[in-house]
Design goal:
The structure holds 2 protein chains of 2 kinds.
Chain A (H helix, E strand, L loop, with lengths): L7 H18 L4 H29 L8 E9 L4 E7 L1 H20 L8 H20 L3 H10 L1 H11 L4 H30 L4 H4 L6 H18 L8 H8 L2 H26 L1 H27 L4 H20 L4 H32 L10 H4 L1 H15 L6 H15 L1 H26 L6 H4 L6 H19 L2 H30 L1
Helix pairs in contact in A: 1-2, 1-4, 2-3, 2-4, 3-4, 3-11, 3-14, 3-20, 3-21, 4-5, 4-6, 5-7, 6-7, 7-9, 7-10, 9-11, 9-12, 10-13, 11-13, 11-14, 12-13, 12-18, 13-14, 13-17, 13-18, 14-16, 14-17, 14-20, 14-21, 16-18, 16-20, 17-18
Chain B lengths: L6 H18 L6 H20 L4 E3 L4 E3 L1 H27 L6 H17 L4 H19 L6 H32 L4 H8 L7 H18 L7 H8 L2 H7 L2 H15 L6 H22 L6 H22 L1 H28 L1 E2 L2 E2 L9 H4 L1 H14 L6 H15 L3 H26 L12 H16 L5 H15 L1
Antiparallel strand pairs in B: 1-2, 3-4
Classes of the chains: A mainly alpha, B mainly alpha.
């Protein structure tokens, strides 16, 4: 039995579905249904979040093992089980998902007015799939959650999105599906070799190098699209721009982490030699992503598109960190993933705040917002700085660690990553200046009202986190340092054996 | 001579004759009572199948085992669901004739005879008993030129297929000296080698059966016949006869021709690949939902053939699991098509579904479940169907076929998504007429099965495992 004394991970995963079922049963006229749906969704996700704090409290940080493990037989003929559990890598992402969902529901309180019931159901189902994906310790189970995310997200973009929503939702769905089916074949091939789908048993299985290369490419097809890495990132700006605010927050906050999580959970431990073999290739793609998409971001007129490109750049830092294979690099990558989840989610919420008032995302239509919305300008400033990785904010420790880790591999790689930080400052400050500063020339800006209490409530936890992660990163780093240490050690052992074998 | 073994078929045929008489004699419309009687006969037959003993009868012409029981129950279920859909449709279209359920019943007897065939002769008898009612059913809306065209087209091409089957069967008989499956197996496993005549014969038999399941390159009739036939008939076409024909292919290829796998495997692999690819690409441009579903069914047949090509215990189990799940998804999707009726007139354009998410949320949800499931998105049943076919394919090293299969499933996801898009993203047009009770029943049953299959997959898997063990064992 696990530390919590009850199957907490399954509860966290499937509780939102219960809320969705309740919402589905609500009867009445449209206004009543909408209001009931909102409150039910909010309470369900809040209860899920509070329950997930048990993980924060009970997680044993000194252990690198899977904790809170649940194991049920599901398809015994094929060695496929219902195995749930978290380790240092995944536990904080579960918390991130459960934290962002209620905030998203709160953020869409007024901005979603049509088909509220379906919207809330889609969000709760999405939460189930996200949490389940980070908890799954069976490869097939992981794949099911990983893919099932597509259905609610497709509907969220397609039904409640902007003018080009159909194009964006198709692109999102088909891009991701194309990558994933190749991974499915790789999973099946792996199953055939190892006879099990359990991740902990698989990691003890030695795969011949030749096969590792193929499996790596298949995993790469799926995860690289999901991350997204340059050059398969083009679905992301479209999806972000067209998705409703809350959809963008979840997309940036959690869904983008699924790819990087996949690299960490599968590619590195299962395919150590192929990972090492392909590392230079990943470095190149990552650095291109960092520099190229930063430059592209600099040229954007649309606020959401700019932040979307900045996400690609940040994820470039993450993939770079993962493939340094050292303690600093991987810890930095994990920390960047978390901070990016908080910060870019918050930035999309910031865009949402002014978008709800002005119904435009064009930077040129703004200017001088700081004078009429001082509190908003403060919040926006904080998250801009965090995105730039100013020391003392959430963005800094992660990127710093990645650059440290990269330096150990190759100073030029580190240089590439650092360039990204400089460019990041350039485009984020351009964005902030365009929106917040300058003279007020337009009457509509003068009429803007500052944030309302609901919006304060949405931002409060994110502000606290952004500062906490910046000022005392250790309380987050301590969750995964043991797991990462074990992972690095196993990786080096695997590479060591392989090179000794080659030497013979 | 153990004729009681064939009790299910005998009972069903006698019921059919009795219902025919009961339908002719009274002066009033007997469609509803006849349909109910046929459904009752299906239930009785189902019970008889479950309690049936195993063995062969009629001089080795007829075989009953777990495999035949599984497939028979599946085709009975498909026929019963198809009949339920037709009840309301025929009434609204002015096609209420009691012959309809009787024809379905005799087609079902034909399917059962095919599934239990243990001889090329009884195979042919069953196939013809299936096909003749189907020709009539396709042209059932006889005053509608499209329906008449569908019936004629199906008849001409079906007759060609029957001819090919007979030709192939006589070649096999001529070179192997027997038509009985068990003795064929002995004759073909001989070390002496296999003559070219038998191979040609086998290929002809496979081609004829490929006609019936609409596998590429013998699929040309499918879109036209599916489009022209009355929608419930199309639902029936796309499900039950495929079960029987696939059952026959499985039995014939793993039994008598099992030892000459090297001769036919490449044929099936090629057919599977072509079907998957054509099913994926040709459906993209379709504006008519029934044509779209025709191409989609071609794609699914490709996946089923993938399992068949791989063969072995896991491969054939994949075939059976895929078949069962496909039936549920397909009948469910066709139930929605049957309900597509506006101001009393049936409509069948993809665009007619626009805004269904608002005008009829429950039906739209069901349709979305079927579409996502057919696209193979987990955790819906269609994903498991695909994975149980892909597992053995990769195990046996059929990489090219597996990769082409999953890529074509991505392509086909495009048009499945289009239906979801039309239902949910587009502005609503006027809603459909009130959904008939039969459709709601079928939708609920198949929808819940598709959605919740992942909770208890073991039932279907175990049944399929036993069924396969019966013919491989």
């Amino acid at each position: 039995m696990n530390a919590a004394g009850f199957p907490i991970l399954s509860l966290l995963t499937f509780l939102p579905l219960l809320g969705a079922a309740i919402i589905m049963m609500v009867r009445g006229d449209e206004a009543v249904v909408a209001s009931n749906a909102r409150w039910t969704a909010l309470w369900t996700s809040l209860i899920t979040f509070i329950l997930s704090l048990v993980l924060w409290a009970q997680f044993d940080k000194s252990s690198a093992d899977y904790q809170f493990v649940e194991n049920l037989s599901w398809l015994p003929d094929f060695g496929i089980g219902y195995i749930m559990g978290v380790d240092g890598i995944s536990v904080l992402f579960v918390l991130l998902s459960t934290l962002l969902t209620p905030l998203c529901i709160l953020a869409s309180w007024h901005s979603i007015q049509t088909r509220v019931r379906e919207y809330m159901i889609a969000f709760l189902i999405l939460e189930t799939m996200m949490v389940g994906m980070f908890c799954a310790l069976d490869f097939i189970l992981f794949y099911i959650f990983f893919e099932a995310v597509l259905i609610p997200m497709f509907l969220i973009i397609g039904i409640w999105g902007g003018p080009r929503r159909v194009y964006a939702s198709y692109k999102f769905f088909l891009y991701t599906l194309l990558g994933s089916v190749l991974m499915l074949l790789a999973i099946i091939a792996l199953w055939y070799q190892a006879g099990t789908m359990s991740i902990s048993e698989l990691s003890e299985f030695d795969i011949p190098f030749n096969m590792q290369v193929w499996l790596f490419l298949a995993f790469f097809a799926s995860f690289a699209v999901k991350v997204p890495m340059w050059p398969v990132h083009t679905w992301l700006p479209d999806a972000h721009v067209e998705a409703p605010t809350a959809g963008s927050v979840i997309l940036a906050g959690v869904l983008l982490k699924m790819g990087a999580y996949g690299f960490l959970r599968f590619s590195l431990p299962l395919l150590p030699e192929a990972s090492a073999y392909f590392a230079p290739f990943i470095y190149v793609l990552s650095i291109v992503a960092v520099i190229y998409t930063s430059l592209v971001a600099l040229a954007q007129q649309d606020m959401k598109k700019l932040i979307a490109y900045s996400s690609v750049a940040h994820m470039g830092i993450v993939t770079l960190g993962i493939f340094t294979f050292n303690q600093q690099g991987i810890e930095g990558a994990l920390f960047t993933m978390l901070s990016h989840g908080v910060v870019s989610g918050a930035l999309f919420l910031c865009v949402g705040v002014v978008y709800d008032r002005m119904h435009t995302r064009e930077i040129a239509r703004y200017g001088g917002v700081a004078k009429v919305m001082p509190a908003y300008a403060m919040v926006f400033m904080l998250f801009t700085m965090a995105s730039v990785a100013l020391p003392g904010t959430a963005g800094f420790p992660g990127e710093f660690l990645v650059i440290l880790g990269a330096w150990a591999v190759n100073p030029w790689v580190a240089f590439g990553a650092a360039t990204g930080m400089v460019l990041g400052a350039a485009y984020m400050l351009t964005l902030y200046r365009g929106v917040a500063f300058g003279k007020i020339t337009k009457d509509e800006i003068r009429k803007l009202l500052d944030m309302e209490p609901r919006e304060y409530a949405v931002f409060a936890p994110l502000v606290v986190l952004a500062l906490w992660m910046g000022i005392y990163p250790q309380s987050f780093l301590s969750f995964f340092s043991a797991t990462v240490a074990q992972m690095v050690q196993q990786h080096q052992a695997a590479i060591g054996t392989a090179s000794r074998m080659a030497g013979l | 001579m153990n004729w009681t073994l064939a009790l299910p078929e005998l009972v069903l045929s006698v019921c059919g004759l009795a219902i025919l008489v009961a339908g002719v004699i009274p002066k009033k419309d007997m469609t509803f009572p006849c349909t109910m009687a046929v459904l009752g006969a299906f239930v009785v037959t189902g019970v008889l199948i479950i309690t049936q003993a195993e063995g062969t009868a009629f001089g080795g012409q007829y075989v009953a085992d777990d495999f035949s029981a599984f497939m028979k129950l599946l085709s009975l279920a498909a026929a019963a669901l198809g009949l339920l859909l037709a009840l309301d449709w025929n009434e609204k279209e002015g096609l209420s004739r009691f012959e309809f359920p009787v024809l379905v019943l005799f087609a079902t007897v034909g399917m059962m005879a095919m599934i239990s065939a243990n001889d090329l002769m009884s195979l042919y008898l069953g196939l013809e008993l299936l096909s003749l009612p189907l020709y009539v059913l396709a042209a059932f809306d006889r005053d509608n030129p499209r329906s008449a065209e569908a019936g004629l087209k199906y008849f001409v091409l079906g007759a060609l297929a029957s001819g090919m089957l007979l030709y192939g069967a006589s070649l096999v008989y001529g070179f192997a000296g027997t038509t009985n499956f068990d003795r064929l197996a002995d004759a073909l496993s001989a070390e002496a080698g296999i003559s070219a005549g038998v191979i040609v014969g086998i290929v002809f038999v496979i081609a004829a059966l490929a006609f019936k399941i609409a596998a590429v390159p013998f699929h040309m009739w499918t879109p036209d016949v599916y489009e022209g036939s009355p929608t419930p008939v199309t639902a029936f076409f796309a499900s039950a006869p495929k079960v029987a024909t696939i059952a026959l292919l499985v039995r014939i290829l793993s039994g008598p021709f099992g030892d000459v796998i090297a001769q036919w495997q490449q044929v099936v692999v090629l057919t599977a690949i072509l079907s998957m690819v054509l099913g994926a690409f040709a459906a993209i441009g379709q504006k008519n939902v029934k044509r779209l579903m025709a191409y989609s069914s071609i794609g699914h047949v490709g996946f089923i053939l993938m399992g068949l090509a791989v063969g072995g215990e896991t491969g054939l189990r994949g075939v059976l699991v895929y078949m069962a799940i496909y039936i549920a998804m397909n009948i469910g999707a066709f139930a929605v098509l049957v309900a597509m009726r506006r101001n009393g007139r049936a409509v069948e354009g993809v665009d007619d579904l626009a805004g269904l998410g608002r005008t009829d949320p429950a039906m739209a949800l069901a349709m979305a479940i079927f579409m996502f499931s057919m696209a193979g998105i987990p955790p819906l049943a269609g994903f498991f169907a695909k994975i149980y076919v892909l597992l053995p394919a990769i195990e046996q090293g059929f990489w090219a076929m597996a990769v082409i299969g999953v890529l074509s499933s991505v392509v086909s996801a495009y048009y499945y998504l289009r239906i979801v898009k039309v239902m949910y993203f587009d502005a609503p047009v006027t809603g459909f007429d009130v959904r008939p009770a039969g459709v709601s029943f079928v939708l609920a049953g198949t929808g819940l099965f598709t959605l919740f299959f992942f909770l208890f997959p073991a039932m279907l898997l175990d049944a399929a495992k036993h069924a396969v063990a019966a013919i491989i064992g």
